[in-house]
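Hey, I'm writing a tutorial for new members on how sequence and structure tokens pair up, and I'd like a real worked example in the thread rather than a made-up one. If someone can provide the structure for the chain below, I'll link this post from the tutorial.
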Amino acid sequence: MPKNKDYKNWSKEELIKTIQNFKNYGLVWEDKPEDVVEQCKTVLPVLKEVKHKEIIKDKSSHANILIEGDNYHALSVLNYTHAGKIDVIYIDPPYNTGARDWKYNNDYVDSEDGFRHSKWINMMEKRLNLARNLLTRKGLIAIAVDHNELFNLGLLCDQIFGENNRLAIITIVHKAEGRQFVKGFNPTCEYTLFYAKDKTKCTINMVPLDPNVQASFDLVDEHGKYRLENYIRLGGGSASLRINNPSAWYPVYVSKNCKIISLEKKPGMIIVYPITKKGEERTWNTSRETFRTNLEDGKIIAQNENGRISILRKYHEKQSIKTHWVKPQYNATRYGTQLLQDILGPNAFDYPKSLYAVEDILKITTKLDSSVLDFFAGSGTTGHAVLELNKADHGDRKFILCTNNENNIAVGVCYPRIKKVIEGYKNLKGEKIDGLGSNLKYFQTAFVDYNEPTDKNKIKLTEQATEMLCVKEETFEKILSQKNFKIFKNNNHYTGIIFDQAAIINFKKAIKDIKGKFSVYIFSLGDETFDDEFEDVKQEIQLSPIPEAILKVYRRIFK
């Protein structure tokens, strides 16, 4: 309660309001309108493909996506095409150091700007709210930040994702020698905040990030990499001795060929106790019940080592993830700036992230087939890391990168980097670096005038929505293009877009002999899906009205 002598005389309404304010503890900032947000009150963002920047190396595989444009507009489009589809978001937003390193409403923000922090928070809040909608129920977001906005970002993320969904704050030492130009305390590290869409459903891959530890897992079974460890408890002080822990001293029976292991005595089997080579009577690592469970799960094997039978446990590639990361490969100068120069030449981009820092973040957050989004893509490190990780573990991850073209970063840095990494290149030493393969589709954000919901405006939006629908369905190969309808496909799915209801009959004739699932979008001034018209179609078809489905999303996010 505030130190106010008159609070005893407050009305009931005043007391309730004060209590509610205490319960709503959080971040408060001055709202500074942003031009790119205000723009969406009169125009709606769509996507336009830049066909000559397409890269296709494997027609049987999916396409990664690069979107050139303001990330608020890109995220708005993705709220229609990818709502609930993204597994992992990694972003490295501007750090707001006061060194004029980012713009707000076309003006650089510097340390003299009294609204410097409010502008940054306002910019991030708008984008994080849109980004949250894109995550799957098991999805998570990782955000890089330094000390300038660390505390504001934490409070903002608590507010958007929920404090209970905060997973960790990781410290990454990226410049062990410190930033020498800073007086006093020299920063040596940055931070990555991890938040889940729903902490109860999110999982982290507990894989070792240290290469030496990782190398020790030199065996593989159906559950992944593992190493063998003695089942005898060799540490643990006095508790590892039989005399002090008799319940963990029990016989294990093993066949002569070591293929059968049992806790029940069977004829002809060899009895094995936890006795060391020195004759010490120790204990097994677990109780008899846990041993039985591990045995049933295939985690225990026996080996004959020079006439002596050892009981060994399969220890799979898992360990707790520490919140302080130190590795030479996290050095941003060597494995960020210099690596990028090796790909694109000198002076390509200032302060790119270490490729290996991003790769390790993806190691613990993604599955083999995860979808990864970076809407502050910059030099394209995240896309590069996804491709490297796929090569290392034969994964099939895909990425979406979003970046504006300020200082030619999309056209001159991000795109050529991804292109060279996919196709291969020669480094500064003239050495040939093999390409990692994969596909890429390049889009730019564009706009449709839509200041009121007239029939004319709905028709305009529908005519400009083709690329958005192809991105939504991941069907990029055009197989038929008529005046009033188009058909696209991928390996096992088709997308039909009908711009005139009168063309439904001709559309059905065109697909009569096509086998596969269809998503069909039909122009409608309302939200009619024309189910009756497709009752006689043999294929499995999902019908959606356009542009109403798009407008519903835009009405929600632009309100």
